[in-house]
Amino acid sequence: MQSAEDFMDPDDFLAEEAAIGVKGLPFDSQALINMGVSEQVGEMGNNNESEERVERQIPYWVAIKFVQKGLGELQMPKIFGRPVRNALKADPVHVNLVEQDPRFFAFGGKFLEAVEDPELAEVLDKSYVQRTRATLDHLEYGAAGKETVFVSKMDETERQGMSHQENILNYPYIYGYTFTVLGGCGDSQGIQDVGIQSEGIDGCKGKKMIGSEEECGNRKNNGCRSLS
Amino acid sequence: MVLANDIPEPVHIKLDNQVPTLQEYSYALSELEFLATQSLVRFEPTSALPVVKLICGTYGPFSPPRKTYVPLWLALCLYEHDRGRILLPEWMTAEALAKSVEEEQKFEGVFSSIHPHWMVISKILIEKTGQDIPNLEEIKKSLQRLKEIRWEKMRRGVSELNPYHLQTNNLSYMEINLIRPVFVKAMQTLRKINPAESTAL
């Protein structure tokens, strides 16, 4: 769905750049170049005279126009194929989206405007929500601004969302301490001045999330911060 | 009266003819503090003061030892000039906070009701009138626990996001302010990703 801020948004244009297969009759590449498409793209068409339907990879914004004029059919792109969908259904958080396509979600939205695929819509929906939650968790442990393994797996849309989350999580309030609190056992001296981010003593060293369902093995009685 | 000193705030850049960016959707810390200091608080004057007529209202007369309800900004002003002392709000005593922490822990997906400006008011009162507060350490611990538990619940709420409707009761203004850009951005993206479903509404 287009919104007002999309009209001039460069990310919106770039999302449509993704290559998609179009199966159609061979077309005249010179006509494409005359239309204003770059030579590199125009040469993807070849001028063979046979009537066979050939599949070609062209940018999405060109492909859409072809399809609307009835010159070909859209093929399901590989990045939304069965293996990727299964991976996203199984564990959406750890799928490396950047190697698929740096604009995975944005292109997915554009693609779904043209093609009806409720299964893909649901997969994208759920995986985005789970990954947003995982980003919040990831930022909680002071990873703001660092290029971690987790961040390298995110696509463009998520990185923009992450920058907003980073700014917000750095607000200090309640007597000067921020949200980035390490979980795990804090000994009572750590909580003395509640302004300190305390690390656990020979405990989980903050690896367990606050409120995680896993039991902390090294449970100290003096102020373990798990929810249970 | 600037209470938030040296705290980096997101820069609000406004260009002409542009839809406001997500950073502008949230309040700056100082703006939230300004709004929070309008809540009423109990004040006990130590010296007599006549009626104070201001544009926003008339306050007074202050005759000790009668306690009155005044806005927090006025109470802080009078406190700094040694005209009285600010009494701790009922929800901020050590017992009441301990009870709130218990309530938060009991219910999983629900937030317990607490003053909508609890974070800001507690911060201001601890900063300015810290020495007058009894059981300060316990109060600070309870506040920290409360903050952690509520933040944890909010993070769990992110998993149940959908682009159309979100309702949560008893969130304080500061918490809403913190989570607003995350939720707004996520909802916008979900609407873009899933156009068919959103146009079905």
From TrEMBL, chain A:
Q: Which SUPFAM superfamilies match?
A: GINS helical bundle-like (SSF158573)
User: What's in the keyword line of the UniProt record?
Assistant: DNA replication, Nucleus
A GO term from the CC aspect: GINS complex
InterPro entries given in the database record: GINS_bundle-like_dom_sf, GINS_Psf3, GINS_Psf3_sf
Q: Where in the cell is it found?
A: Nucleus
The answer, when asked if Nucleus is one of the entry's keywords, is: yes
An example of a Gene Ontology BP annotation on this entry? Answer: mitotic DNA replication initiation
The record's family statement is: Belongs to the GINS3/PSF3 family.
How does the annotation summarize its subunit structure?
A: Component of the GINS complex.
Q: What does this protein do?
A: The GINS complex plays an essential role in the initiation of DNA replication.
Q: What is the recorded name of this protein?
A: DNA replication complex GINS protein PSF3
Automatic annotation (TrEMBL), chain B:
Q: Has UniProt tagged this entry with the keyword Amino-acid biosynthesis?
A: no
What does the record give as the organism's lineage?
Answer: Eukaryota, Fungi, Fungi incertae sedis, Mucoromycota, Glomeromycotina
> Which keywords describe this protein according to UniProt?
DNA replication, Nucleus
State where it is primarily located. nucleus
Domain DNA replication complex GINS protein PSF2 N-terminal residue range list: 30-86
User: What is the organism field in this record?
Assistant: Paraglomus occultum
Location of this chain's protein in the cell: Nucleus
The UniProt entry's sequence similarity note says:
Belongs to the GINS2/PSF2 family.
Task: Tell me the Gene Ontology biological-process terms attached to this UniProt entry.
Answer: DNA replication; double-strand break repair via break-induced replication
User: What's one Pfam family the UniProt record gives for this protein?
Assistant: Sld5
Alphabetical list of InterPro entries matching this protein? GINS_A, GINS_bundle-like_dom_sf, GINS_Psf2, PSF2_N
- Start and end residues of each GINS subunit domain: 91-193
* Subunit structure as annotated in this protein's UniProt entry: Component of the GINS complex.
What GO CC terms are in its UniProt record? GINS complex
What is the name attached to this protein's record?
A: DNA replication complex GINS protein PSF2
Any stretches that span the bilayer, and where are they? none
Q: Is Nucleus set as a keyword in this record?
A: yes
